[in-house]
Amino acid sequence: MSDESQTAETLNESSEPAAGPTPETTPAELAKPDPAEVLAAEVADLKEKLLRTLAEMENLRRRTEKEVRDAREYAITAFARDLLSVGDNLARAVEAVPEEVRQSADVVLKGLIDGVDLTGRDLAKTLEKHGVKKLEPMGGRFDPNVHQAMFEVPNADVASGTVLQVLQDGYVIGERVLRPALVGVSKGGPKPAANLDKSV
User: Fold this and answer.
1) Those residues with Cβ within 8 angstroms of residue 175's Cβ, 6 or more apart along the chain or in another chain
2) Radius of gyration of the CA atoms of the chain, in A
3) Which are the contacts of 172, defined by CB distance < 8 A and separation ≥ 6?
C-alpha cells in the first residue's frame, strides 16, 4: 500500500466521530418539565377550583334559604305594624267605658262593648298566628332592645331598672322588634341581681 493511500485512510478515519459514551439527556431536555408532573399540577389546581366553587355554591344556597325564610317571616311587618294601632284603638274604646256603666248597660250597649272587646282579642290572636307576639315586660328588667323608657319611678323596694308600668304594649315579629313597649322604670332601689329574669 502506498503512502498516499495510507494518508487518505487516516484522514477518513479522523473525520468520523470518535466512538465513546454520549450523554443521555441534553441541558435543553433537562429543562423540560415532566409531563406527569404537569398533569398532576393541573389536576390539583382543577380540584382546588372545584372545591372552592362547591363551597361558594353551598354558601349561596344557605344565603338564599335564609333570605327566603326572612322574606316569608317578615313580609307582613309593615302591615302588622299598621294593625297594631287598630288593636290599640279597640282596646281604648273598651277601656273608655267605665265598669259601672258596663254593669248597668242595656243589652244593646253591652253587646256593642263585648263585640269591640272580642274583635280586639281576635285581632291579637290573628297577629300571633302570623308570628307577631306581644311583649310582657311588667315586673321584668328593662331591656333597651325591646323597651323604651318614658319616665323613671322612684321606688326603693324594687331593683333599679325594673319595669313598673306599661304605657303601650310592645310587639316582636320573629326575632325583630315590631314596636318597643313604652314603659316606666324604677330607680333608687337596690342594684339588680345578675340573674334577674329579663322578661320581655
Assistant:
1) none
2) 44
3) 132, 133, 135, 146, 178, 200
Q: Report pLDDT digits (tens) over 113-164.
A: 999 999 999 999 999 999 899 999 999 999 999 999 999 999 888 889 999 9
Helix (H) or strand (E) holding 184, with range, is strand 181-187
Which CATH code, of 3.40.50.150, 2.30.22.10, 3.30.470.20, 2.130.10.10, is assigned to 132-190? 2.30.22.10
Q: Which amino acid is at 182?
A: L
Domain regions of the chain by residue span: 132-190
Decide: 148 and 181 in contact? Cβ < 8 Å.
Answer: yes
The rounded distance, in Å, linking the Cα atoms of 125 and 138 is 21
Give phi and psi for 54, each to the nearest 5: -65, -40
H-assigned helices in the chain = 3-15, 27-31, 35-74, 77-95, 99-104, 107-129
Q: How far is CA 160 from CA 33, 44, 142, 170, in A?
A: 77, 64, 9, 21
Label residue 117 exposed, middle or buried (CB < 10 Å: 0-12, 13-18, 19+): middle
